[in-house]
Write a structure and sequence with these properties.
single chain, alpha+beta, Lipocalin, nine-stranded antiparallel beta sheet, 9 helices, 18 strands, 26% helix
Length: 419
């Protein structure tokens, strides 16, 4: 059954990620995933031949990965997770059916071993946030797992509040003999209307919105030209804005938490003189290769029909090393006010210096919903009704500057039209 479990997983993965499928097939031909999984249970009362215990271990592992936990769970915590999240599923397929239960347990073991391996690889490569963002829908959303603590009462809300006792769905039974893993999902709070911005007065102090060229790290560790959005205030303060829309930023708290994002500016003739926290000034001429005006959406522009993509990465291959990391993010905005978001991350080690190569790859879980533009604010609303406001701006071209809608800043990061 274990050989068929691996073969089925590789076959399913090959369609979307042939590199990862080949790597998993190679590694699983050399290692016994069951033995690896059993090693996870050492020192616990969980048994590798009990499907309920296997599912309990997988749930706890997902919490540990989402929180990058270094401390092993207590025996009480494991018992509580099994009692509160797994035991209620015993009379439901696939746990209630002997044949599907055994196949389900093997699938979960393999997924747990691969999830643990991906976690450890992402930590070594410094790509854990991207790894978590790219998990499939078969996993409990990391954001929900970060909102709960693992205690002797099980997974409880931060501060000791228990999550709802509504029984989660642990698995959706597909046609035999294949059993897909759909782990329990933690109940979340009911969606609430997006609160009015608390710092709308910030915009009254703004002299202008700009962006400037800076160096960044691209695929393989190559140095590339990046662009960062910059808010200039009338009092001479400059601010490198991040994800949140300006009307949601408490500038005093932001300065205390991220002082390097703030600097000073002044205008000398046609030049803009900018200085960072170190006080060193640098002069820029507007629209002259390094410093540009950024544009808001038009006053009546609520929707657009465009796609934007961002490609970034890291690694050492650009400098002769073995590691290449590539990260892709994409937004698709439609005229009817709906949007989709996707992406992927891949990392390869050529093995040139060690003789052992490897590769991992994951697709970002698809996201979508509705959106609305309002000048420098992009509001995204998911299917669950939860909304968030992001900073938004178009790039510019020419002199005098005019909007360039092929280039957009979404949440402080620059994207371009891939078409």
């Amino acid at each position: 059954m274990r050989a068929e479990t691996v073969a089925r997983h590789v076959r399913d993965l090959r369609a979307s990620n042939p590199v990862a499928a080949a790597e998993i097939a190679r590694e699983m031909s050399r290692h016994d995933y069951d033995a690896i999984f059993r090693s996870f249970l050492t020192g616990t009362d969980l048994r590798a031949d009990d499907a309920g215990d296997v599912l309990t271990a997988f749930i706890v592992l997902q919490w540990m990965v989402a929180n990058d936990a270094a401390v092993e769970p207590s025996a009480g915590a494991l018992r509580a997770v099994r009692r509160r999240m797994v035991a209620p599923l015993a009379d439901k397929p696939p746990l209630s059916q002997p044949l599907s239960r055994a196949a389900f347990a093997e699938q979960v073991k393999l997924r747990a071993v691969l999830h643990h391996a991906g976690w450890q690889a992402a930590k070594r490569l410094g790509t854990l946030p991207t790894f978590l963002a790219g998990l499939s829908k078969d996993f409990i959303p990391p954001a929900k797992l970060r909102a709960v603590a693992l205690t002797d009462d099980g997974l409880v809300g931060q501060g000791g509040r228990r999550p709802s006792r509504e029984t989660p769905s642990a698995a959706r039974p597909p046609a035999a003999p294949s059993v897909a893993v759909a782990p329990p999902t933690l109940p979340g709070p009911a969606a609430e209307p997006l609160a009015a911005p608390r710092h709308a007065a910030n915009w009254a102090e703004v002299e202008g919105v700009y962006f400037r060229a800076a160096t960044g790290v691209g695929v393989g560790g190559m140095m590339v030209i990046e662009y960062e959005p910059l808010i200039l205030f009338g009092d001479g303060t400059s601010y490198e804005i991040a994800d949140a829309a300006l009307e949601d930023v408490d500038l005093a708290a932001e300065r205390a938490a991220h002082p390097r994002r703030f600097g000073r500016w002044t205008r000398i003739g046609e030049a803009y003189r900018l200085s960072g926290r170190d006080g060193k000034p640098q002069d820029y001429k507007l629209q002259d290769g390094s410093f540009f005006r950024a544009f808001p959406a038009e006053a009546d522009e609520r929707t657009i029909a465009r796609s934007y993509r961002r490609l970034s990465g890291g690694g050492t291959s650009a400098m002769g090393g073995d590691v290449t990391i590539a990260v892709s993010n994409r937004y698709d905005f439609r005229q009817d006010g709906t949007y989709g978001r996707g992406g992927s991350v891949g990392a390869t080690n050529s093995g040139a210096s060690t003789g052992v190569g490897s590769a991992i790859g994951r697709r970002r879980a698809p996201e979508g919903g509705r959106y609305a533009l309002d000048r420098h604010t992009l509001t995204l609303t998911g299917p669950d009704g939860q909304s968030r406001r992001l900073f938004f701006a178009y790039g510019s071209q020419g002199s005098p500057a005019r909007p360039d809608r092929e280039m957009a800043f979404i949440g402080g990061r620059v994207f371009s039209n891939p078409d």
